[in-house]
Amino acid sequence: MQPIKFLLWDTKHEAFVNEPYYAISLLGTIQIEGHTSVEPKRYIPLQFTGLMDKNGKEIYEGFIVKTSRNLKAVVEYGNPWTWQKESDNRQASQ
Fold first, then answer.
1. Residue 77 placed within a domain
2. Closest among 64, 21, 70, 24 to 44, alpha carbons compared
3. Is 27 contained in some domain?
4. Residue 18 is part of which domain span?
5. Which residue, 46, 57, 88, 89, has most beta carbons within 10 Å?
6. Could you read off the pLDDT of 37-90 as tens digits, one per residue?
7. pTM for this structure?
8. Do residues 81 and 63 touch, judged by C-beta distance below 8 A?
9. Tens-digit pLDDT profile for residues 24-34
């Protein structure tokens, strides 16, 4: 059984949230260090897929990866790979 882990993407700063403690409610609200986000669309939770890249780094939903055919793909649950434009801002590594 894979661990349930998340990363938070901050759309305002275009970076991963670097806080060790945050909570995501069943309603989708996000609390960081005890403060509820007043901008619910600001943070995008990315769930750990249970997969690792060739360098041993964890792969999360929403990451952009390069396939064995040298194509770029966005990782999504339900679909092993979903093709996306290269202009997406999210990075494949932390």
1. yes
2. 24
3. yes
4. 6-83
5. 46
6. 666 688 888 888 888 888 999 989 888 888 888 888 888 876 555 544 444 445
7. 0.67
8. no
9. 777 777 777 76
45 and 24 Cβ atoms separated by less than 8 Å: yes
Query: At a CB cut-off of 8 Å and minimum separation 6, what does 74 contact?
Result: 62, 63, 64, 81, 82, 83, 84, 88, 90
* Total count of domains within the chain: 1
Answer whether 43's CB lies under 8 Å from 17's CB.
Answer: yes
Q: For the stretch 51-87, what's the b/e string if a residue is b when 16 or more beta carbons lie within 10 angstroms of its beta carbon?
A: eeeeeeebbbbbbbbeeeeeeebbbeeeeeeeeeeee
Domain membership of residue 57 (yes or no) is yes
Q: Is 15 within the bounds of a domain? A: yes
